[in-house]
Each structure stands twice: as C-alpha cells, then as structure tokens.
Specification:
Strand content: under 5%
Largest sheet: none
Number of strands: 0
Domain Major facilitator superfamily (MFS) profile: 23-410
GO molecular function: transmembrane transporter activity
Keywords: Membrane, Transmembrane, Transmembrane helix
CATH architecture of the largest domain: Up-down Bundle
Transmembrane segments: 21-42, 62-82, 89-108, 114-137, 149-168, 180-199, 234-255, 267-286, 298-316, 322-341, 353-373, 385-406
Protein name: Major facilitator superfamily (MFS) profile domain-containing protein
Low-confidence stretches: 1-14, 211-218, 415-422
CATH class of the largest domain: Mainly Alpha
Distance between the termini: 30 Å
Radius of gyration: 21 Å
Structural class: mainly alpha
Order of helices and strands: HHHHHHHHHHHHHHHHH
Length: 422
Amino acid sequence: MMSSPADTAVPPSAPLQRGAWTALVALSLMFFLLMAGTFNSLGQVLPSMVKDLDMNWSQAGLGFALLGLACGGASPLPALGIRWLGVRTTLALGALVLALSFAAMAVAGSASVYYAGAFALGVGFCLVGPIPAVDVLGSVFGARQSLAIGIYFAVGNVGAVCGPLMFYTVHQLTGGWRSYWLLWVAASIAVGAFAAIAAGNAAHAARRAGAEAAGTAVARVPLRDLFRHMPLQFWVLAGAYTTCLAVDTIFHSFVFQHLMERGVTQGLATGAMSGAAAVAAIASALGGAAGQKLPARFLTIVSLLALAASMVILTLPTGVATVLGFVVAFGCGVGVCKVAVVEMLRGWFNDALLLELYAVMTWVATAAALGPSVGGRLRDATGTFAPIFDLSALGCVGIVILLALVRRPRSSVVTDSPAIAA
C-alpha cells in the first residue's frame, strides 16, 4: 500500500517561528562539527595515535566501537534532558561534554584515556546531534520542516567530506595529531554556545506559541510507556532507519578496502568515498525540498532501493563506470533516506512525541553497529566482502516490501493508552 500526500502531518498553514533560520544555521554548524570531528576523521587520526600511544589495532578498533555504542546507547538522554531541563541547557551540557571529550583525546597518553574520550564523544554527539535538532527544527519551521531538516543533514554530510581534509591540513601544518583535537575543543565551545542560545530561544518561542494555541502544556511521556504501546508501524520505520545506518556503517568500514582489492587505484577509491559523501549532501537538501511535495513513504522506498542497488553494484566487475554508479546510488540513497524516515515519523505519529519517538528509533538503530562485525566475519570466512554487500541489499529490499504493505496508523495510535495520553 503506497502513501498519499496525507502522510505529511504538518498543515500547510503551520507558521515559521521567530529565530527559525538562526536556529537552523546554529544546529547545522554543530552537525558539521560532529560529522567532521568524530566518525569521519577518527579513522584518519588513528594511525598516528596507534603509533604514538603504542596501541595495537584491536585497541584502536575498540575505541571506535565505544564511540558508536555510546552514541546509540545514550539516545534517551536528549529527550529526557529537553523535557526536564529545556533545549538550551541540554545543548550547553552536550557541548561541554564534547569539549571535554576532545580535550581527553588531545592529551591521551594511553589506551584507557583514548577509550574514555571516544565514549564521551559518543555521549556528546547524542546530546547535541540529530535528536534535539530534528525536534527543534520540526517545531520552529512549521510547514517548511522537511526543507529545514534536509538542509541540516546536507550540512552534516559536507562535514563528513571536510573532516579528513581538515585533519590532513592540520597534520601537514603542525606535524602532529594533538593540535587537531584541540581545534575541536575550541570549536565545540564556540559553536555549542551559539547553538544553545539560538536553538533554545527559537524552541522556547515555538513551544510557548504551541501551548497557547492548544491551551495546555506539552505532556511529558515516559519512554518506557512508549515502548510498551508502540505499534507495528513504528518498528517498520525503525527497521528502515537501522538498515540505512547499517549500510552507511558498512560503507565506511569496507568499501575503500573492497575497491582496492578489486584493482581500483587508491586515488579513485579515495575519490569514490569523498564523492559519495558529497552526493549525499546534495541529496539530503534535494530530499528535504522534495518532501514538501512528495509522500515521505515514496521517498523512503526509492532511497532504500537506491541503497540496495549501490550494494549490488559493488559485487559487479569493477571499473570507472561501476564506481561512478555506486557513488551516485549510494549518495542519493543514504542522503534522502535519513530525511524521509524522519518525515514519515512526523507524519505517522503524534507530532508532540517526535522527540521521544526519534530517541527510541535511534536507540534501536544502535544495532547497525553489528554490520562491520558481521561483514568482517564473512570476509574472513569467504575471502571477499561481496557477501555482506549482498546481505545489505537483501535487507533493504525486505524493508521496502514491509513499507509498501504496512498501513498508516491511526492518528492517535501512540496516545490511546491512558498511561501516555496527554
């Protein structure tokens, strides 16, 4: 069953709140910082850290895993923080955690300090990343929320492109890696303060306007109650988001090495990685704009099919044409999917509960961290990365089938229970 334009929950007349564009700039800069300074540059910094800290690659990989697990495991924290402390305080605390985390990375003299810094980076990422940003942008942009969220993810993908280049530049200028982490300490403080003030002011104005319009305050909803009463449709959406993140994680873990093993030059393989991230940035912005006209379910299905095609392309005979096809298919798929799934979440469920729903969905998506482990085991057993790419494609197709068949839930399906009724 395909969706109709009614899959979009926000009415066309929903107003743009005061300070919305300033909040978008601030939150987008923060997401640029996160994408550039954590996952997408740590891989470039690790060889130097391994050498200087006398670590092995098992220790280095454990730190990367702790970063991912903390980022997913801490997903409930932004929802709890915003409901109890407010947007401004939550973002300020997150920025402080980020600054301390980067400082720990900069002064690390042993693997244990590196582990602590990586874990704290994941917590900080969660506190100031997409969960609070999507909640704020959705509340302040009204009918333009899809465009705003698309721009937000696009800027983050630009950060993914720039992070490795920034480390290369700093490393060439200073000859070390500690100054690179110190750069992010200063950036976390400056950008974090800007984001906390701008987003906090805009969110306060939006929530006050919403409360006045509804004649009541927004109810706090325990996450355990959402778990207990969540319908099947939510878990299908969570599966789509998890599949998208799993494919993205597999991309960062194996595609470069896979292309090298297939005879692709290092320059072309590097270009493919950067090119895919650049395409994803453009696709996020275009997907956000398209989300104002096209049903979110349609965009999600198309983007997942593009991800499936990108994984299949990797198993074909490798040449310039297939690499280019992979870059376009993967970039469009991952860029649009992250935006479209959020729009489905907004359109299918109680808009006031988006913060909690997105937090739960992100927590479930922590399972995507298993992708590299499964892929590594399959590579060791078969001598090739092709099986994990085939498995990823099948997963995408399976979720597409579920999305096409599942019915849109009743508008009050998440709030029918007295335990979570407003």
